[in-house]
What does this fold into?
Amino acid sequence: MCKYIDELKKVNYTKNKIDDIAKKHGLKSSELKKYYQTKFFSNIAEAVNLNNLSKLNIEEIEKFLDSETLKNEFKFIKTDLKKIIEKSLYIAMTNGFSNNINHVKSGVMTANAGDSAEFIFVARAILAGFNCSSVDVRSSRYDAIIDYNDKLLRVQIKGISSANFISFKDRDRGGQGIDHKHETNIGQRITSKDCDVYVAVDKQVGICYIVPMSWADSLSNDKCKNIKLSEVTQYKENWDIIKQTTRESDDI
It folds into this structure.
């Protein structure tokens, strides 16, 4: 494997040269890029002292506190903040959660990754104090149920990784022999008829974007296909949406 790194060194670690190196050795570019990422993240993680790095973060945060009140509040949480920063830095320095370390075939891994996003959300919801369960029927338009204040909320869950957008539209069916233009194969829009809450789970670090379908329904048919994560920051880790959605259903 060192020969691949040596060749990348020769081109000054230029990413757009990976295709040429991969072709030379009969490899897939995506696999070679993943190898480089895994190796370099590991090298950097070994070279960095996370305890010292977390201290530097604490010191940098403290510089921005310009009032006595904030300084006292910071002093109160300083130890806890340092601990969580160190944990977060560990995940960052390993490029997020481990991904397909057993080299499962891509088709199988795609399905498994979808399941993992569902399980991540269900676990996070339970940890947050909600009564949440997966739905085992794969033909269902929702993936999980949350029981809150004797109300059942239907939750559709999608996994995201490197993408910085979400879509309120199913993927078109593809494959050999499939008529892509037939209406039964065209991805349908996801609406409040399908679920009450839409959750996008960042599979790399576990962050959840909890979006009420009342908001998604207000989007145009074109807009709903491609929503940047920067447009839904108000729903990032916003677990109160579950409570709010339940209250809105009471008002109907």
The chain has a mean pLDDT of 91. The chain has eight helices and seven strands. The domain at 106-251 is CATH 3.40.1350.10 (Trna Endonuclease; Chain: A, domain 1).
